[in-house]
Amino acid sequence: MGRGDKKSKRGKISRGSYGVRRPRIKKRVTPETKIEIDKKVKP
């Protein structure tokens, strides 16, 4: 178990692969905040 092991987390990191032991971190999609523009007409 260690760097050379394909099934361990360290092994996945050293090989640069992903799997059950080292899942990919998904980026959260944040909805764009709508900027409200006040439409005021000057008298």
Task: Report on this structure.
The chain has 43 residues and is mostly helical. It is 16% helix and 0% strand. The longest helix has 7 residues, at 9-15. 0% of the residues are buried. The model has no long low-confidence stretch (mean pLDDT 81).
Topology:
Elements: H1 9-15
Proportion of residues in extended strands: under 5%
Structural class category:
mainly alpha
CA gyration radius, whole angstroms: 24 Å
The string of secondary-structure elements, in order, is H
Poorly predicted regions: none
Secondary structure tally, helices: 1
Share of helix, binned: 10-25%
What's the overall geometry? rod-shaped
Largest sheet: none
Number of DSSP E strands: 0
End-to-end CA span? 77 Å
Integer average pLDDT = 81
